[in-house]
Specification:
Largest sheet: 8 strands, antiparallel, barrel
Strand content: over 45%
Helix content: 10-25%
Distance between the termini: 40 Å
Strand order of the largest sheet: 1-2-3-4-5-10-11-14
Number of helices: 3
Number of strands: 14
CATH class: Mainly Beta
CATH topology: Porin
Number of domains: 1
CATH architecture: Beta Barrel
Radius of gyration: 24 Å
Length: 258
Amino acid sequence: MRIRSILLLFALALVSVGVQAQEEEDNNLFNHLSVGVTAGTPGVGIDVAMPACDFVQLRAGISVFPKIKFDTDLSISSYADTYPDESDLFPSSVGIEAKTGFVNGKFLVDLYPFGGSFHITAGAYFGGSSIVKAYNTEDGLLKDVADYNARVPESERIGYELGNYLLTPDENGNVNAEIKTASFKPYVGLGFGRAVPRNRIGFMFELGCMFWGSPKLYCNGEQLTEEDFGGDDGGVIKTLSKITIYPVINFRLCGRIL
């Protein structure tokens, strides 16, 4: 609800600015174009920008967050209160390799309320929903666990604990997990610099928030629900599964080509 209110106020401000721009003799409507390269928490990217009027500029582009790999260990756990007799035959922990990486398109509207370089931005990022993928490092290591789970009710299955989630292996003894967010991510921010610089070369700095919703954890294609296992495994993956707002810090170097 708060996000909608912010975007509504921003839209009203744009309407007001648009009316003012119509009264100007020179409204600069789409008469310039700039190309920029960006670097920041959304990744590295490229975009183009053009003015809608003296107080409003539009940006569209793409950003790519590079793939980063890291390792963690998960401990054995169970949905049941007790472990089966043969649990000592199963690995007590499993090594997991995880990698981050995502690609987003973006469309942003920059409002310059004072006519200078300070701007307020609203818009959205959109693209792939998967932000982290994780899998066991040794293929088929958990085959005995998978065979056991196939013989017992779901409430008695065992797996490996990731925060408040239990990752169970597929029939081949592998774990394939991923964290997904919303594919459409509203964005608000503020900063300094003009998307279309007055000179040939310009620089922008921006702070903002990308609202990507509550991350969902999937294992072998099925969405998991939280349970109270009382452990603290998972490290970085567990932390990412709790973040609902992604902080954005962006630097942009641009050049006016028209």
